[in-house]
Specification:
This protein is about 50% helix and about 10% strand. By secondary structure, it is of the alpha/beta class. The strands form two sheets. The protein has a six-stranded mixed beta sheet with strand order 2-1-9-5-3-4, sandwiched between helices. A three-stranded antiparallel beta sheet has the order 6-7-8.
């Protein structure tokens, strides 16, 4: 066997037990993995899951985040995912969907949790989970006492991992340790899978966030691009990541994973619609082109979401300054307002004139229309000089990103069903 650090693949030929493989991996990595919680193993009963296995097709990795790009997280995803004793990954998805649908403000100001398309219908032979609990930080980031509570033995957070086959939590890791741990657990899970089966690794991040990145306890950023690189490497090993990042300003990571899901649908359409019955016919081609048209429109919505996330970052910077009444500051606000107006105008024109969604629910258009109206109202107040309510402006951007992203998800999920293998 050979193994190198980080994302490099393992050539696994040993007949060793999963526990022996795990120990060998830790030794080969050249450092000791901290054991903050014992590895939890669920009963190894897999007949029904084996029947539901996905025939080797790896589900695109997914992400759930605690807030849209310009907004802070107050822990809604973690609270809602754990309060009813749910599996953490499934509970996090449900929490993001609930917020998107109801707009409930359980924590005062809604953070609008977001997610990439939920394509979790394909079965996993094994599900492992690891968590990174960053409660201690260096200046200028404050420490987070509530996250330190998650690691207590009887916490609802730890209980939500009980349904996974193996799990472990890591306290206050550095970025390099996070990358190494994910690589080691992907290798471990791959070694435990029978040939042809796929597995899920749930990866949770609790701590500070910025620009769609997670901030480790050494104040370094794990970017959304780096998360995607980890996910793509895992998928070559028959492992799908489900990342749950309950951190502020995390929404910028979602479009990266939405685009990844759209790419997977392109491949499914090519394989199962264009090439249905192992041949390309006129009927197959027309059916595939219709799905590709809708997928192109979903990609447009993903681009909208990414653009809103970028403006959310700029707005975060303005809000952190907060020099109301200062002329240079207000000029910056006015400049950002003008750029946002032009962006929203072009988005709205594209949405209303060029987009149709045959496979999406009828209310999709209405929900996005409402979000356009909300942001138009907020920008109008800025233009009228009501500059004391920039937080309302930020929330309108967050709502629009959330709704547009939700629209892209609905289309991709519907197309995933339409392009399923016969």
């Amino acid at each position: 066997m050979t193994l190198t650090r980080g994302l490099t693949l393992v050539n696994e030929t040993s007949e060793a037990t999963p526990e022996a493989k795990a120990e060998w991996i830790r030794d080969a990595l050249g450092f000791t993995i901290p054991v903050d919680e014992p590895v939890h193993r669920a009963p190894f009963v897999r007949i029904s899951q084996m029947m539901a296995a996905s025939n080797g097709e790896v589900r695109p990795s997914e992400i759930v985040v605690g807030s849209a790009s310009p907004l802070t997280s107050s822990g809604e995803v973690t609270y809602l995912a754990t309060k009813d004793g749910l599996d953490f990954a499934d509970g996090a998805r449900a929490a993001a969907a609930e917020n998107s649908r109801s707009g409930e403000r359980r924590f005062g100001a809604a953070s609008h949790p977001m997610q990439s398309p939920d394509l979790s219908g394909s079965g996993f032979f094994l599900r492992y989970g690891i968590g990174f609990l960053c409660s201690e930080y260096e200046w200028p980031y404050p420490s987070l006492a509530d996250i330190a509570e998650y690691s207590k033995p009887n916490s609802a957070f730890l209980a939500s991992f009980k349904g996974l086959d193996k799990s472990r939590q890591y306290k206050n890791p550095k970025k390099s340790e996070i990358v190494d741990h994910i690589g080691a657990w992907v290798d471990m899970l791959t070694g435990d899978l029978p040939e042809g089966a796929t597995g899920e690794l749930v990866v949770t991040f609790q701590g500070h966030g910025i620009r769609g990145s997670f901030i480790a306890s050494d104040n370094t950023e794990l970017t959304s691009g780096e998360m995607m690189a980890l996910a793509q490497t895992a998928e070559t090993r028959r492992v799908s990541l489900t990342i749950v990042m309950d951190a502020r300003h995390a929404g910028g990571a979602v479009p990266v994973f939405q685009a990844h899901a759209a790419d997977a649908q392109d491949r499914r359409v090519e394989a199962h619609v264009e090439g249905a019955d192992e041949m390309s016919s006129v009927d197959n081609h027309l059916a595939a082109e219709a799905l590709r048209d809708e997928l192109a429109q979903a990609r447009e919505l993903v681009l909208f979401s990414a653009a809103m996330a970028a403006h959310g970052k700029t707005l975060n910077d303005l809000l952190s300054m907060g020099w109301y009444g200062d002329p240079p500051f207000m000029r910056s606000v006015a400049g950002e307002d003008q750029e946002l107006r032009e962006l929203v105008r072009s988005m709205e024109l594209q949405f209303r004139t060029n987009m149709r969604f045959d496979h999406a629910p009828a209310e999709l258009h209405a929900r996005i229309e409402d979000a356009f109206k909300a942001i138009a109202f907020s920008m109008g107040r800025i233009a009228e000089g009501e500059n004391a309510d920039l937080n309302h402006w930020a929330e309108a951007i967050g709502v629009l990103q959330d709704r547009v992203g939700d629209g892209a998800n609905k289309i991709i999920v519907a197309l995933n069903k339409a392009s399923a293998p016969p």
